[in-house]
Amino acid sequence: MGERTMAALRKRIEVSGAYSRYNLTEDQAKELLEDFKKSIYPLGVFARRRGYPWRERFVEALRVHLPGEYDAVIEEKAGRRDLKYKKGRAFEYRIRDDLRRHKYWVLRSPQSRSVLDLVAIKKGSILLVQCKLNQDLGLDERRQLVELADSLGARAILARRRDGRGIWYKECLADGYAEWVFDEEPQ
Q: Could you count the other beta carbons within 10 Å of the beta carbon of residue 46?
């Protein structure tokens, strides 16, 4: 960040009162940035959880003290998030392709943030599929998926990675899981 930009930023913070409102020392800013580095939350959520309701002012207060370090942390966190998303998306494509081999018509819900990643349909069968690389569904997430599937006359399916490479399908039930296998082999 250029010197003129930093001067303008400092002036904006002084005028807006953000600096005095947050009253961050350089040590406090460093500590916050270290905590943010370790956090799983995006910046806005992290700021709110720490009692800073205005994300922009929080960022300005950090940038006054740590402009270079702040930008590096943001870039690093974005890269991690992108990698995690890419791995998840690749796994969803793998499940989609496997379902297609079993003659399902498959619709993917990109960046779904919902209880299902894929809808798979073929005559006499509707699957609502949640794809997870390394874990089962949480209780609430499983319950929502099962309720949605029940309301549509569909099956709720969890697709997981097995032993790092294979695919493991489990039917989600209200009280747990049951192993699920296709009715016939792919053609």
A: 18
H-helix segments, the chain: 3-16, 18-22, 26-38, 43-49, 55-65, 67-101, 139-152
pLDDT tens digits for range 16-64 = 444 444 566 778 778 888 888 888 877 778 877 877 766 666 777 777 7
**Is this structure's pTM higher than 0.85?**
no
Q: Are 104 and 121 in contact (CB under 8 A)?
A: yes
Q: Where in the chain is the domain with CATH 3.40.1350.10?
A: 86-179
Cβ pair 157, 172 in contact under 8 A: yes
175 contact partners, CB below 8 Å, separation of at least 6: none
**Residue 33 CA to chain centroid, in angstroms?**
21
3 state DSSP class of 170: strand
CA 108 to mean position of chain CA atoms: 16
Average predicted confidence (pLDDT) for the chain: 79
CATH 3.40.1350.10 fits 86-179, yes or no: yes
